[in-house]
């Protein structure tokens, strides 16, 4: 007899920065024991279909996953319009974003079907915010940075009031294991920028693992964009799921029916 498979995905409300009530997309497996939980920080294209699909992928693999709409305050008609207005305003304010992500972490811990461990994963600008959150937020048990740009400073991108410091400035405060997934053809972050981040992690004796993929650029998980790199995406998803299984526990895999089976490779 086939094992039971079930999933619930819905929009919920959480209280974010300054108590603002914001939308969040919650996907979770049904059945089984308490599971690990993940906050998915969406990319700059916004709180879009692709972000929600990835939340469901994590839920299918056994993790209760929430993705807060970090652009909701823009009030535009589409995620793309919200993103454009964010860029025009000088970027996402770090203090507001971190407060929203902290609210999502705290919300997950109130759910009766989670085991109390929470990870964070983010893509593009969300990868930058993952590094910042892993260094500054409370209660992060594991982090996955997917090609986060702007983690290290660039002369061409001076600090702004919204983003006054680079996340690497806080790296000594990193409080959890960090996984990094990067394409060697990416320009932001470039391989050289990834090297700078890795050197800082080594210098501060942090637990981390980096995987770098040839023939992959920015956004190589994105099946709906030309940037999709199938081989790198399959391998990268395997590393992310293995990371969360290792550090969050309770990852049920296939909707609550035992640990997810994912490939692993050696530490970079």
Commentary on this structure:
With 268 residues, the protein is of the alpha/beta class. The protein has one domain (7-248): Rossmann fold (3-Layer(aba) Sandwich), CATH 3.40.50.1820. Helix content is 31%, strand content 21%. The protein contains six helices and eight strands, in the order βββαβααβαββαβα. The protein has an eight-stranded mixed beta sheet, sandwiched between helices. α3 (94-109) packs across α4 (125-136). The longest helix is centred in the last third of the chain and has 19 residues, at 230-248. Residues 254-268 have low confidence and may be disordered.
Radius of gyration: 17 Å
The CATH class is Alpha Beta
Strand line-up of the largest beta sheet? 1-2-4-3-5-6-7-8
CATH superfamily: Alpha/Beta hydrolase fold, catalytic domain
**Helicity level, as a percent range?**
25-40%
Q: CA-to-CA gap between the ends?
A: 41 Å
Q: Major sheet: size, sense and barrel closure?
A: 8 strands, mixed
What structural class results from the helix and strand content? alpha/beta
Q: SSE string, helix = H, strand = E?
A: EEEHEHHEHEEHEH
CATH architecture grouping: 3-Layer(aba) Sandwich
- Estimate what percentage of residues fall within beta strands: 15-25%
General shape: globular
Q: What's the rounded overall pLDDT mean?
A: 91
């Amino acid at each position: 007899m086939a094992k039971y498979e079930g999933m619930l995905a819905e929009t919920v409300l959480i209280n974010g920065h300054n108590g603002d009530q914001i939308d969040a997309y919650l996907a979770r497996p049904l059945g089984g024991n308490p599971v690990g939980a993940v906050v998915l920080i969406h990319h700059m294209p916004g709180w879009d279909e692709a972000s929600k699909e990835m939340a469901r992928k994590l839920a299918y693999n056994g993790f209760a996953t929430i993705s807060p709409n970090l652009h909701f305050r823009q009030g535009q008609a589409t995620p793309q319009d919200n993103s454009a207005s964010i860029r025009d305003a000088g970027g996402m304010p770090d203090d507001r974003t971190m407060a929203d992500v902290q609210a999502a972490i705290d919300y997950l811990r109130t759910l009766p079907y989670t085991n109390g461990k929470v990870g964070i994963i983010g893509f593009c600008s969300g990868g930058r915010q993952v590094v910042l959150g892993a260094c500054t937020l409370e209660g992060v048990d594991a982090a996955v940075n997917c090609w986060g740009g702007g983690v290290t400073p660039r002369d061409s991108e001076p600090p702004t009031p919204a983003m006054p410091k680079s996340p690497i400035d806080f790296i000594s405060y990193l409080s959890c294991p960090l996984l990094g997934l990067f394409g060697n053809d990416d320009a932001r972050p470039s391989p050289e920028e990834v090297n700078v981040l890795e050197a800082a992690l080594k210098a501060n004796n942090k637990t981390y693992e980096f995987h770098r993929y040839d023939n992959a650029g920015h956004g190589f998980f994105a099946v709906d964009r030309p940037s999709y790199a199938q081989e790198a995406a399959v391998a990268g998803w395997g590393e992310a799921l293995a990371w969360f299984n290792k550090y969050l526990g309770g990852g049920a895999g296939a909707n609550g029916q035992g640990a997810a089976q994912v490939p692993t490779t050696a530490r970079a």
